[in-house]
Amino acid sequence: MTSEQEANGVATAVEVRQPISPAPMAAMEPAIRLGFAEKLALVLAGVIEKRKLYVEIANWNPRTKKMEKKKYVRFEGWTTTGALCGQVFGDAIFPVTVWTRSLPFPAGTTAGDFSYQRGKDEWVETITPAVYGFEAHVEARTFSGATVAAAEAEVTRTEKRWAKADDYAIRSMVQTRAGSKALRVPLGWIISLSGFSETPAEEMTPEMGSEEEPPTSPRGVRQAPPGKTVTKEWGCAKCRAVNPKSRKTCKECGHKRGAAIEKPAELSDEEKSVEAEVDRIIEETTSEGETITLAGRNKVRETVEHARRDQAERGPAMTGTDDEAAAESQMEEGESQEAAEVEAHASSAPDG
Description:
Elements: H1 3-8, H2 22-26, H3 30-51, E1 54-61, E2 66-73, H4 75-84, H5 86-89, E3 93-103, E4 116-118, E5 125-127, E6 133-142, E7 147-156, H6 167-193, E8 233-235, E9 242-244, H7 269-285, H8 294-314, H9 320-348
Antiparallel strand pairs: 1-2, 3-6, 4-5, 6-7, 8-9
């Protein structure tokens, strides 16, 4: 109230909104509290989207077999949520660092194992880090000093992003990571209502996702999931022959790519005999470790079948065993005939 207003006896009413105390908030109906949270979530969604307080990371979803993008809120978005949550919790929530400490190098390693080079040309210098990493303990507290959650985190030089970072940068990052984890406990559900992932962006490592755009693929060509490679060839399920990716049927056996393999019918005795002969010929004509394609086996089978047809047309041929038996029989016949001639000559000769 100004002096002029006091002289004129005019009073000005100023509306002062007092913060809601935690006691009335605890007694508030769940539907009313949820209504406050939904309104806060709408406001947060607009602020986080407008100020880009998130990172969009593509992850492989094994259920849908697709790359799916999710939005992960940065540390600044979590602190903004904590500052605006008074209408839901009755007080604002902020992260408070309790302690940070360095981590020793793992057993069997030295600082030299994590050395790196910085600069270029003649200004290159080799830097040997003093610490392996840092860990921190952060608590989520209200303005009144109450601790509502706590979390610990660590950052080491095994992470690609921090392998060549200065010590102070790693110490700062570990506090950020632990702070976002501590705020996640009381505020994660509000972030979910805003349409974002409840996992802080600082917890997402390269192994869990990538900030890069998911790979685009030509129409009709499937992309391999992370950790697998896309080849330009495919193996036939029937004959195991390797075919170029452009072919739809196997170049060796004609089997259609991706088609099911029919169960082979039971072989007859003649077919089993042919297959055994084919196996014997292949075993005798191929060296150890050498493989033969289905086309080569088919050619051997055709040769065996053709030889058997010719043999059937000419009549049964003598085998080696039959030849030996015939020769032995001829020798026996010759010996018996010679013995008969000697006996006849002896009987016709005169006595004396």
